[in-house]
Amino acid sequence: MKEFELIKHFFTEQAVKRKDVLLGIGDDCAVVSSTENQNIVVTTDTLVAGVHFPLGTSAKAIGHKAVAVNLSDIAAMGAKPSWISLAITLPEVDDDWLAEFCSGAFELCEFYNVQLIGGDTTQGPLSITITAQGLTPEGKYLSRSGAKSGDWLYVTGEIGDAALALLHIKEPMLTENDVIEQVQKKLDYPKPRVLMGQTLREYASAAIDISDGLLADLGHICQASNVGANVVLDAIPLSDAMKRSQPFDDSVQLALNGGDDYELLFTVSEDNKVGMETALTHAGAVITCIGQMNASQTISTTLNNKPVPIISTGFQHFSSNKKHVKIT
Amino acid sequence: MKEFELIKHFFTEQAVKRKDVLLGIGDDCAVVSSTENQNIVVTTDTLVAGVHFPLGTSAKAIGHKAVAVNLSDIAAMGAKPSWISLAITLPEVDDDWLAEFCSGAFELCEFYNVQLIGGDTTQGPLSITITAQGLTPEGKYLSRSGAKSGDWLYVTGEIGDAALALLHIKEPMLTENDVIEQVQKKLDYPKPRVLMGQTLREYASAAIDISDGLLADLGHICQASNVGANVVLDAIPLSDAMKRSQPFDDSVQLALNGGDDYELLFTVSEDNKVGMETALTHAGAVITCIGQMNASQTISTTLNNKPVPIISTGFQHFSSNKKHVKIT
């Protein structure tokens, strides 16, 4: 196991040095300080090779994604990410692989000033568990449970491309190279909506990040908030790559049930709608209103202003695409 | 994956409800509050089946041990454990196994008022990663780097039994049932020295928990503190089970190089020696002085007041028994 000892230097080369990290890598624990009037948000996500990313995924993409999916959870709370702990299990020590993995992980950490404060390296089948933490003003955080009947339903970015990329990896059917590149990039390098989440903290009534699929994650908001929702299928934001390569029906299916988008799905009251739109679009964010919450406790879908039955399933059906189950 | 959805209820049945947990299991992140004048310590440890515990280990022992090894790191900092996040990867959902795992994990959590605030459940080869956090008064924590030449070296409890149990599992040679039971219990149910750690915060100059082996972990203190040490082999505390079943030389080898003890190894100045001994022994703790730090930057060993050369290796040799490498 001596070679595993050598791994450490890969993780100590990060550039981020936060003032609130009193003791970083190199002891039994890291020590961090938090100021008064702040809450700390904590999330943990595991990525298993062949389950959460295809076996051929590049080390850089795995590094990026492992950090991104955790920062996406922090973003959904409206918090500012601060520290991560990394537990990585590797079948063998491969310096090139590790260098690439770190470059993918640290690029994102540096962008958001997130410091790696510790972790553990073990030998075994490839899997990565990251615990990410973030800070938010006391009592100011988004959750899944604040949506009210009448609130508007929004989504950031475009939905479904990652699912299309996964489909293409399983059963190749895309022909245009730029389409393949575009959707592959969405699958491999999801962008956690960290800044949007922090802006939304002032406006949104509920938020979640889309990991299991738009419908499944909307189901989580509905369940936690004790409301229902109608989704306007014509309004779902689809990428050019999706529109060029897929018929509308397939696009909508991928968008509704695909998952791996790591966009934010959030609700906002009528009163906060204009303020939210102004604040987010001023910052250059792409957001789309895709429906409205109601008191039905079910999810319905409409197309061309008419109800369509295909998607109106109960909450219990929403978990079909789940690859893991958050205990949080 | 629907059955994985059902796992969640196992983890939501914990009894601990801390006031500083504003949002527990059930959202994108947990939310905790910390008061001013406190630091937060953070550690992450992974246990992989067949690497960190034998494949036949009971689910209850695995649950206990996964929590214990993390609380042991918190103890080594002198902090009070507060919250844990659990990432568990399971080959299949087995209700009996999960119930036993949780009973082992939660028993320890309840004893120390530690709340499970979230995590992730995935399908794959059995492995458990826990991130544990703890609280300590601002700036008051133990580290590996405070030992000074002249400080006394102490260890809690008795050393080597877990290594003896592992040896017996690999090559059965123990014959007495009560010996087997006793050392097996030490391997399966290590006791994190949480209360001792908190008391030591006021007295010790450096501390570490013994996971890699007494010599290896002493090496970490020496390296971080830029000092050396002499270990008095006759003073090493051995259990009755060890003394009854093993010749002295083998006992000492197991104690020095075995690991998995999760006892605290710490240093204390001459000035603090009596105060520390009084405080700890008043609380019923078993501690033993096993040597003294010096300026040599190497580790030496003595027996019957005479130097013995066998163990005086350099720091680079200390990692031979490592099963994982803490990035922290």
Outline the fold blueprint.
The structure is a homodimer of 328-residue chains.
Chain A: H1 2-5, H2 8-11, E1 21-23, E2 30-33, E3 38-48, H3 59-76, E4 80-90, H4 95-111, E5 115-123, E6 127-137, E7 152-156, H5 161-170, H6 177-188, H7 194-200, E8 204-209, H8 214-225, E9 228-232, H9 240-245, H10 248-257, E10 264-268, H11 270-282, E11 287-294, E12 299-303, E13 306-308, E14 324-326
Parallel strand pairs in A: 4-5, 9-12
Antiparallel strand pairs in A: 1-2, 3-6, 4-6, 7-10, 7-11, 8-10, 9-11, 12-13
What does this protein look like?
The structure is a homodimer. Chain A has about 325 residues and is α+β, with helices and mostly antiparallel strands. Chain A folds into 2 domains: about 1-135, PurM-like, N-terminal domain (60s Ribosomal Protein L30, Chain: A, 2-Layer Sandwich); about 150-315, PurM-like C-terminal domain (Phosphoribosyl-aminoimidazole Synthetase, Chain A, domain 2, Alpha-Beta Complex). Chain A has 11 helices and 14 strands. Chain A has helices at about 1-5, 10, 60-75, 95-110, 160-170, 175-190, 195-200, 215-225, 240-245, 250-255, 270-280; strands at about 20-25, 30-35, 40-50, 80-90, 115-125, 125-135, 150-155, 205-210, 230, 265-270, 285-295, 300-305, 305-310, 325. A 7-stranded mixed sheet of chain A has the order 8-10-7-11-9-12-13, with helices on both faces. Chain A is globular. The two termini of chain A are about 35 Å apart. At the A-B interface, helix 1, strand 2, strand 3, helix 3 and strand 4 of A face helix 1, strand 2, strand 3, helix 3 and strand 4 of B.
